[in-house]
Amino acid sequence: MCGVFGYVGKSGAAGKIVNGLKRLEYRGYDSWGIAVVKEGEIEVTKKVGAIGDLDVGEWPESHIGVGHTRWATHGGVTEVNAHPHFSTDKSFVLAQNGIVENYQDLKKNLINEDFEFISETDTEVIVRLVEDKLKSVSDLREAVRLAFLDLEGRNTIVVLSSKIDHVIAVRNGSPLVVGVGSGEYFFASDTLSFADKTSRVVFINDGEIVEYKDGEISVFDAESGKKIDFTIEELENLDVDVDKSGYDHFMLKEIVEQKDTVRSAVQYSMKELEPLIGTVKKSSTVYTIGAGTASYEAGQAAYFLRKIAGVKAVELKSYEVDSYRDLFSPNDLIIAYSQSGETADTVEAVEFAISRGAKVASIVNMLGSTLTRISDMPFFVRSGPEICVCSTKAFSAKLSWSLLVSCAIAGKYDEAKKSIYCLSDMLQSYFSDKLFERIRDLSRKLKKSDHAFILGRGQNYYITLESALKIKEISYLHAEGFAGGELKHGVIALIEKGTPVFVLIGKDEEKENIISAAAEVKARGAWLIGVGQVENELFDEFIATPDVGVASCISNVIPFQLVSYFLALELGYDPDKPRNLAKSVTVK
Ligand code: F6R
After folding, report:
1. Domain holding 503: CATH number?
2. Is residue 239 one of the residues assigned to a domain?
3. Which one, out of 239, 335, 376, 440, has a CA that is 20 to 30 A from the CA of 32?
4. Is the pLDDT of residue 52 over 80?
């Protein structure tokens, strides 16, 4: 939710900021703004919409500036509400990522003190608050610090001064990292935004301020204002391609990349998994946790742990942990699922579990992210950057890793690895123009429907939920996933002649039951599309997926990722940037 990107260097600030913001657009793309300093004055440009191919040739030459890409929380998508926001005397601008939870109270007080507001944002409250503090302190850093201490919520702010080369950034909850280049610094929401420039990084922790002044950076404790030490870390494998590699969209590129990413996700030896396996075995309950797609990964992982490894595992939605809070204990293990490692709901739930003494493992795609840094046992799926807003390759990668862990606990490490490698091998030839054409044809028929239903049982149940989410978020068509057993308890009332119903089917103990569920909807006129490893005469159409033993369920999500993609194209939507969404949800 929103990306911030500050830059100080030798020259070309606008171009560097545009480059950084493009790499941050997955965090929100409803509007953007860039401020650069030229001869002691700040020039701000703001626009509604995604950045696109912006030409900065005409922009003032500058060596210092700050940019922002927005996912609106408070106030509509307008240029006025876009960040950065000016102070009244135009001596500084401020950009924010987060939500000021007490903004209404703060705003009332500031209005009583005759401050005027021009936007509808909570961000402007911070700007006026800093101005208010500047009445009693002359130092901008101190004013920012005092204002920051008045804020409630998870916020990261970046402030740029017009007077001297001066950037101040503060973190609480929302991510903030500093890239240290050769004679240049980047103050950003993630490492990916400057990964093509430097791999040297300072991670700013919650409650810390970083200041650039007099040619160097310093870090301060926000509570006390005292200077504190910091370390520059050298990150490996940070600079990765973020181009479409000839594909029309990142989404299709990332779907196809699964042929390799499922394999990368299981590059853990038995020895590397041992600390986790040992903790799982000692734990009284293992809670798997995540949000959105990651919550379905958590659900599937808990299923694998119960079914394959006989472990008492419970899936939790990160945003619904409240009733479990008092139950977390030092005997429990939390396994957190997240692509970004920054999802506020998940980070907060994990922080709470840590405060109750529980152990935490995490499985994340983004190096250096908050979740990995607060976990006792961080694991990476190494899928490479997922730029499309919806998650595809990170989903199958985390499922592959989870399968490996469960099988390893059950003494079947080799079997799991063999199945995943087999999946990877089969996917090399699975993605073909023929398959894409077939699914595009199916999408042409599907787009005329009001609803689509997806049925699965056992190993395929969470795949139905994820598949339905993909269709909803990318094509805006209403789709729901159900356990095969559930439909007849109510939802079957929605089935009428021609209603599309997908049926996930594998060579498992659920096969007969899912065929019965399929027969029940077929009897009511449903158009049945089978997906999986077992064809059946009931199906009007059948999409075969790789038959790879225990890993077969992972392959079943792929046709739905493709259906979502082609449906979006058929309906004229941009699959990479679905409406209303942002990839990294760092607000609650
Ligand atoms: C859906 C999607 C979201 C995320 C969710 C959690 O395609 O991408 O549902 O899965 O917002 O994000 P992470 O995995 O970054 O914690």
Report:
1. 3.40.50.10490
2. no
3. 239
4. no
Whole-model pTM: value is 0.85
* Residue 384 shares a structural domain with residue 455: no
Q: What is the pLDDT of residues 97-142, one digit of tens each?
A: 988 999 999 999 999 999 999 999 999 999 999 999 999 999 999 9
Catalytic residue list contains 388? no
* Strand ordering across the sheet containing 500-505: 478-483, 451-456, 500-505, 527-532, 541-544
| Ligand 1 atom, smallest distance to 343 CA | 16
Probe residue for ligand 1, chosen from 293, 316, 342, 362 as the CB with the greatest number of ligand atoms within 8 Å: 293
Residue 132 is part of a domain; what is its CATH number?
Answer: 3.60.20.10
119 occurs within a structural domain:
yes
The reply to whether 271 belongs to the active site is no
439, 423: one domain: no
Domain boundary among 234, 264, 299: 234
pLDDT band for 587, please (50, 70, 90 cuts). low
Q: Is 564 in the pocket of ligand 1 (CB under 6 A)?
A: no
Q: Residues 381, 246: contact at Cβ < 8 Å? A: no
- Does ligand 1 come within 6 angstroms of the Cβ of 340? yes
Range of the domain at 498: 432-588
* Cβ neighbours, 10 Å, residue 135: 9
